[in-house]
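User: quick one - fold this with NDP bound?
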Amino acid sequence: MGADIIDGKAFAAVVRGKVGEHVARLMADHGIKPGLAVVLVGEDPASQVYVRSKGKQTVEVGMNSYEHKLDIDTSEADLLALIERLNNDADVHGILVQLPLPGHLNEDLVINSIDPAKDVDGFHISNVGLLATGQKSMVPCTPLGCLMMLRDHHGSLSGLDAVVIGRSNIVGKPMAQLLLGDSCTVTIAHSRTKDLPDVVRRADIVVAAVGRPEMVPGDWIKPGATVIDVGINRLDAPERGEGKTRLVGDVDFATASAVAGAITPVPGGVGPMTIAVLLANTVTACCRAAGLPEPEGLTA
Ligand code: NDP
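Assistant: Sure. Structure tokens for the protein plus NDP:
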């Protein structure tokens, strides 16, 4: 029997729909239009695609989008001055600095200069600390998207065994915090973990965030487990024509989907959720700034 496919594309459309409804209510009842500022330094092609997509979706849900494209050799002082202006701009409720930054800019310094209340990526050290201590925070988009899909599929996650493979600050660690917050028993695995297959086999929930194509095979998966594949790996696909590529996750979908109870595909799983949650975080930030109730079901 095959696994249920958790359709991230459809789920993201539902999240965007809820965001759009909330934005319309904020406008109608309070005359407030949420605004998201995205800062891009340099011309990295992948970052340009992400920023364009973020801007387009921001406008589609009825919010203001402010794009700031800076030269690759922008100085740290100029970038910090822009962030300061955005911090003080009442029309800007969310600020996102597209990563990675060019090497001469100190990423930690830049991220920690964003007003934590406007830090819709959830990377500011204050938000990291608030999440770790179970307090209200801005939560990183990708893990929050994974949590939303897990809650939707399972209802309560309480007491389930969860294994997160990967311990990065942007996915693995916040994912583990969120699962802990929902009362899972959480194991964080990484490149030094002994007997990873055995660790993964104990899990009711597996979140793979490694960046290694199809590393997790079906025989590591406990029958019936839910598998969330965060990985995005681009492989050459000469069978599709010269120069063509295809995307795969960190999980071997063919074998894992034969064993799992539910699984996210790549593409079409976690990926589409990330921007949808960014929009949700912007509305949440806007509501908090205005002292209004937060949108239901769109926060941790
Ligand atoms: P990082 O490279 O920052 O972290 C990878 C983690 O995987 C590290 O903790 C590393 O362990 C661990 N790891 C590496 N090799 C192994 C191994 N053989 N066994 C077990 N663990 C291992 O990656 P990110 O967290 O930034 O991203 C992970 C994946 O998720 C990537 O494919 C990325 O493209 C994707 N991604 C997708 C997003 C989306 O929107 N869907 C958003 C963000 C990321 P150690 O710490 O010991 O080195």
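One thing worth noting: The radius of gyration is 19 Å.
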